Amino acid sequence: MNSLCENEGADESRRSATRGGMLVVVSSPSGGGKGTLIRRALEIVPNLDYSVSYTTRLPRPGELNGRDYYFVAKEEFERMRAGGEFLESACVHNNFYGTACAEVERATASGQDVILEIDVQGAASVAERAREAASVFIFILPPSFDELARRLSARGTENQSDLQARLKNSRGEVERYTEFDYVVLNDEAERASKELAAIVLAERARRERQIELAKRVLATFPQNF
Ligand code: 5GP
Question: What's the pTM?
């Protein structure tokens, strides 16, 4: 069966190909600015969807259920995880986050590419589980630790202890840039979002993703001309 998350039980590794679309996995430390870059890339690149994650974290002011996240209680998250409903899930800065298979399949089944905005642990799980699926892994690099700290505190969304926890985790997250295919420096949002969009477009044009197209074009050429 050609589905991203065949529900073979929670303990089974679920690996299979997406029907059509490519998974674009984007990670960065908290405050790295990936949300802004992704929003802009979604405006630039056609046929690109966004996977809304599930989280047990409380909504921040202005965040909407179903747009920013699906905000769920721990029990509901645990039920979904036990039921094998997540492509990946992780505990990040003391909250649970997960990418629902259904969310990703909704987009990829119709041939759309889909962005997963997830942490480095989640990216590693996707790399492991979706081995056969078309996927590309992009790390958003902040210009420096000081700039990351400045952006995170300017955002004003975390209390002091959450902020410290996020900054404390950031070095370990940045060290894992080596696991990604691309690294985009987020020095300036407009430039960096164009780079992110360019990567998605270039990945689409890879030869192995253009075989069907090339065959169709080739079929229009006479054999003995
Ligand atoms: P925040 O609480 O700032 O929205 O997110 C905290 C971290 O969790 C960010 O690095 C974000 O990318 C990550 N995250 C968001 N959704 C998911 C998800 O579905 N899975 C994983 N593994 N991480 C996620």
Answer: 0.91
The answer to whether residue 61 sits within a structural domain is no
Q: How many C-beta atoms surround the C-beta of residue 219 within 10 A?
A: 7
Question: What average pLDDT score do residues 146-173 get?
Answer: 93
DSSP letters for 82-150: HTT-EEEEEEETTEEEEEEHHHHHHHHTTT-EEEEE--HHHHHHHHHHTTTS-EEEEEEEPS-HHHHHH
Q: Do the bridges between strand 113-117 and strand 95-100 make them parallel or antiparallel, or are there none, so unpaired?
A: unpaired
Measured CA distances, 137 to 79, 80, 134, 140, 198 (Å): 28, 25, 10, 10, 14
Which of 71, 118, 155, 163, when mutated, tests ligand 1's pocket best, judged by the most ligand atoms within 8 Å of its CB?
A: 118
For residue 4, name the pLDDT band (cuts at 50, 70, 90): low
Among 54, 55, 52, which residue's Cα sits nearest to residue 67? 52
141 within a domain of the structure (yes/no) = yes
Residue 122: which pLDDT band, with cuts at 50, 70 and 90?
very high
Q: How confident is the model at residue 5 (pLDDT cuts 50, 70, 90)?
A: low
Q: What is the CATH number for 191?
A: 3.40.50.300
User: Domain limits at 171?
Assistant: 19-51+111-217
Partnered with residue 48 across adjacent β-strands are 113
**Structural domains of the chain, count:** 1
Pocket of ligand 1 from Cβ distances under 6 Å: 30, 53, 57, 88, 90, 92-93, 97-99, 117-119, 121-122
